[in-house]
Amino acid sequence: MNPVQCRMARAALGWGVLELAKEAGVSTQTVVRFERGEALKQSTVGELRATFEAAGIEFIAENGGGPGVRLSRHSRGA
Length: 78
Known about the structure:
This protein is about 50% helix and about 10% strand. The protein has four helices and two strands; from the N terminus they run ααααββ. The model has no long low-confidence stretch (mean pLDDT about 90).
């Protein structure tokens, strides 16, 4: 997951920085730093990603069209 995918995933779920931080158990500053492009521990990025995946986000790898995200059919909100 990269910073752009993080912002895209939040938008897809309708989450602000505060909601993501609360769900992932990290500080809001951690989310802001990551989305700004600052390096975080891989374990922290993993926690953010796992939080999104548990909420129904699927990460799409770089495949010629650029990395992205989508809501799975089994998302919590669906």
